[in-house]
Amino acid sequence: MSETARKAAGLAAPSGDANRWKALVFIALAQLMVVLDATIVNIALPAAQEDLGISDGNKQWVITAYALAFGGLLLFGGRIADLWGRKRTFVLGLVGFAAASALGGAATTGPLMFGARALQGVFGALLAPAALSLLAVMFTDARERAKAFGIYGAIAGGGGAVGLILGGFLTEYLNWRWTFFVNIPFAVVAAAGAYFVIREPEGGRNRNPLDIPGVLLSTLGLVALVYGFTRAESDGWSDTLTVSMFVASVVLLLAFVLVEAKVKAPLLPLRVVTDRNRGGIYLSLGLAIIGMFGLFLFLTYYLQIVKGYSPVKTGFAFLPMVVGMITGSTQIGARLMTRLPARLLMGPGFLVAGVGMLLLTQLEMDSSYPALLLPAMLLLGLGMGTAFMPAMSLATQGVQPRDAGVASAMVNTSQQVGGAIGTALLNTIASSATTSYVKDHIAGATGKPQQQLVGLQGMVHGYTAAIWVAVGILALASLIAFTFVNAGRPNPTAVMSGEGAEDEVPVPVVAH
To answer: Using CB atoms within 10 A as the burial measure, which of 47, 79, 221, 293 is most buried?
Structure first.
C-alpha cells in the first residue's frame, strides 16, 4: 500500500529505519556465509585431512568442534545480542568469524584446524541469532516482514546447496584452504555494511544481569546432547560415553528448566518456548531439518560414489532444490503469509517436501537424474521454502523486544540440534541396512568386481531405508505444524512496538 493510500485510509506508515532494506542485504550476506560454510567444509574435508595428516579417527572433529561450539552457545549468543545490542553483536560475530576462518585456512596441523573450527562456532553463535533478531525488530509491518523473511528463508534453505557448488569449485580448481578464506570477503563486506547502514530500534535491550547458572547449564546440556548424537554416529548408540552424554544432557537441561522457572532474569524466559505457536515451530523445524539431512547426507555420497559425479557436478545437481527453495520462500510463502494462517503454509509445505523425499525411496544404482532426482529435489525445495519462511517469521513474532535475540536463538538451536540428530540417526539406519544387505548378498558374489557391485547396491539400499524414515519425520513435522500452530494470518497493519523494553509485540490477529 502506498504512503498516500495509507494516509487516506487513516493507517500508520510502516515504522522502522529508512535503510532497513539496505540492511537486509548485509544481514542476508552474513546468513549466506554461515550456511555456505557448513557445506563447503564437508566438500573440502578429504583434501584437508590428507594435507594436515589428520587421522580417520580424528577427522570428525573438523565438523564436531564447530557443531559443539555453535550448538552449545546459541542461547548465550541470543542473550548477548539482547544485552549488548544486536548490531554490535552482529558486527563482532562477523569480525570474529572472519578471523577464525583465516586461522583455519592457514592451519598447518590438525589441532590448529580443530581450534579454528571451534572459534568459528563461537562467533557463529553470536552472529546467527543477532541476524534473525535484527530482522524481527527492523521489519514490523506484516507485508514488509513477509518479503524480508522470504528472502532470508530462501538463503537459509538454499545456501547449503550453493555451498556444495562453491566448495566443489574451490577444492577442485584451487585449494581446500580457499573454502575457509572465501568467508573473509563475505564477512568484511557484511560487517562494514552493517556498521554504516543498520540502525537498531531503540528500547529493545534486555539490560538485566546475565543468568550465569542458566548459561552454564544450557551450554553444557546442549554440548552434551550434540556430542552424544555425534558420537552415536561413529561409536554406536550403546557406547558407554554416548549413553553417558545423553543422560548428562537430560539432567543438565532439566536443571536448566528448573533454574529458569525460578530466577528473576532468566537466560531463556519460559514464556518464549511455552507459547503454543512458537513451541510448535521450534519442534516442527527441528524435525524438518532431521528429514532434510537425509537429502544432503545421502545424495552427496550417491552422486559422487555411485554415479561418479565430480564435486562440481554434484553441487550443480542440487541446483533444482535451490531454485525450489527460492521460489517457495519468495513467491509462495512471502505472497501468501499475510493472506493465510501460518499452519496452512507450514503443514502443506512439509507434506510437499515429504512427497519429494518419498520419490527418493525409489532410488536405485541406475536411477535417472531427470526422471527421479530432478522432480524430487524441486518438490523438496518448494515445500521447505514455503514452510520455512512463515516459520522463521512467526517464531519471533509476539515476543517482547527484549526477548527477540533469545527467541531467534531458539530457531537456530532447533535447527542445529535437528542437524546433529539427523546426521547420527539417519546415518546409523543407513549403515545398519547396508551391512545387513551386504551380509545377505555377498556370498553369491564371485570376484572383486561383483563384490564391489554388491557393496554399492548395499549402500543404495541403506540410503533408501534411511530416506523412508525421513519421509515419516517430515509427515510428523507437518502434523505438528497443523496441530500446534494456530495463529491466524497477521494483520497487515500490525506494527511491532519498540517504545520500551517492556512493550509487547502485537500478537497476529487470528482469522476465524
So the answer is: 79
Tell me the C-alpha distance between 422 and 416, whole Å. 10
Q: What is the pLDDT of residues 363-402, one digit of tens each?
A: 998 899 999 999 999 999 899 888 887 887 787 777 776 7
What's the number of CA atoms in the CB half-sphere (13 Å) around residue 306?
A: 24
- The three grid cell numbers given for residue 236, joined into one nine-digit string: 554406536
- 369: number of Cβ within 10 Å: 13
Question: How many angstroms separate the Cα of 143 from the Cα of each of 14, 49, 54?
Answer: 9, 47, 50
Instruction: Report helix angle 374-395 to 404-441, nearest 10.
Output: 150
Residue 390 identity: P
Number of H helices, E strands in the chain: 19, 0
The answer to whether 75 and 410 have CB atoms below 8 angstroms apart is: yes
Q: How far is residue 130's CA from residue 128's CA, in Å, rounded to a whole number?
A: 5
- Distance separating alpha carbons of residues 245 and 68, to the nearest angstrom: 13
Residue listed under C-alpha cell 517430515: 474
Tell me how far apart the alpha carbons of residues 275 and 270 are, in angstroms, rounded to a whole number: 9
> What band does 77 get if pLDDT is binned at 50, 70 and 90?
confident
Q: How many residues are given for the chain?
A: 512
pLDDT band at 202 (very low <50, low <70, confident <90, very high): low
Within 8 A by CB and 6+ apart from 415, the residues are 285, 286, 289
Q: Which three three-digit cell numbers place residue 249?
A: 544432557
497: left (phi over 0), alpha (psi -120 to 50) or beta: beta
Residue 23 pLDDT exceeds 60: yes
Which distant-in-sequence residues (6+ apart) come within 8 Å of 18 by Cβ? none
Q: Give the model's pLDDT for residue 496.
A: 44
pTM of the model: 0.77
pLDDT above 60 for 507: no
